[in-house]
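Input record, target 12 of the design panel.
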């Protein structure tokens, strides 16, 4: 049996994807929560500028309330 060749293509993050990661990191640090669920929820698409996040997170600026599970699901795009 002949081994199958896998075409490994190098991909880069677009500026938009980097911004989405930075927003997720900011939300995670400000609210002392785990960033992993947000990153795992990212839906990525390859565009002309690189990988783009189709469901970037939103960052809350004006509330002092605690983050709920519902908030996490919205941020993760679930």
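The sequence produced for target 12 reads:
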């Amino acid at each position: 049996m002949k081994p199958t060749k896998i075409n490994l293509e190098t991909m880069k993050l677009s500026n938009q994807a980097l911004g989405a990661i930075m927003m997720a990191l900011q939300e995670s640090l400000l609210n002392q929560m785990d960033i992993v669920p947000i990153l795992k929820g990212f839906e990525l698409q390859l565009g002309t500028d690189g990988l783009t996040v189709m469901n970037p997170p939103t960052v809350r600026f004006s509330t002092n309330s605690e983050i709920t599970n519902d908030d996490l699901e919205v941020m993760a795009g679930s």
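The chain has one domain: 15-58+66-76.
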